Amino acid sequence: MAGATQQLWQITQSDLLLRMLISAAFGGLIGIEREWSNHAAGFRTHILVCLGSTTIMLLSIYGFSQFVNEPNVRMDPARLTAQVISGIGFLGAGVIMRNGSEVKGLTTAASIWVVAAIGLCVGAGFLFAAGLCTLFVLISLYLLNKMEKIYLKSRSKHELEVELLDRSGGLVMLSQALKQRELDIVSLQVLSSQTGDGGIEKITIRFVVRSRKNNAYMDAVRYISARPDVLALRTGMSLH
């Protein structure tokens, strides 16, 4: 009985090598997708996270096999695993960046977290679950991302900065013009206000709008640029 228990907590070098190779392959597949998409954490980062998780899992299960038969020792393979799950957050936090109201890197942070989980599965010999998870992650990152871009193409956020003479409620008229063209105003910010020649006030306004139909944004740009009270117009594109 003791011999069977001892064998349970041991692994051959060939099996260990196989699990490490599978871990590097699964992590690399997800990392390649992130690399192609020009994200901060790419191919090498995902391989390292997956390999590290696998190594810790292997250590947790098989690294203390010499103490199995000690009467005062209780083996707990999940102890080191729990530290990986809680500790991987520092890497995820490092790739999340905030720029104003926009947050970037959430998907990459999530991919790092799930790659750690894949590594733990590989290290524990839960290979089918690791492969299945890798497949679903690739589908989510690549195929669903393509579908999302197609679906949200007409719901893009656009930035519009307008300098105009505010002599007859120009701000209100611009807001109404955008809404009439089925553009939702996400945010509105008055950047500057000054009095020009003749005592007429000039203001600079930044709109962030979301279009609900194709060509709505360009239609609004053409209308605004043609207004006689508009002095300058700057356009730009924000993220989804």
Task: Output the keywords.
alpha+beta; two-stranded antiparallel sheet; 2 domains; Alpha-Beta Plaits; about 55% helix; about 240 residues; 9 helices
Quick description:
With 240 residues, this protein is α+β, with helices and mostly antiparallel strands.
Q: How do the helices and strands line up, and which of them pair or pack?
A:
Layout: H1 2-8, H2 13-36, H3 43-62, H4 78-87, H5 89-95, E1 97-99, E2 102-104, H6 106-123, H7 127-151, E3 157-165, H8 170-180, E4 183-195, E5 201-211, H9 216-226, E6 230-237
Helix pairs in contact: 2-3, 2-6, 2-7, 3-4, 3-6, 5-6, 6-7
Poorly predicted runs are none
Please state how the strands of the largest beta sheet are arranged side by side. 4-5-3-6
**How would a textbook summarize the main sheet?**
4 strands, antiparallel
What number of structural domains do the residues give? Answer: 2
Describe the model.
With 240 residues, this protein is an alpha+beta fold. The chain contains 9 helices and 6 strands; from the N terminus they run H-H-H-H-H-E-E-H-H-E-H-E-E-H-E. It has a 4-stranded antiparallel beta sheet, covered by helices on one side. It has a two-stranded antiparallel ribbon with strand order 1-2. The longest helix is centred in the middle third of the chain and has 25 residues. The chain is elongated and about 90 Å long.
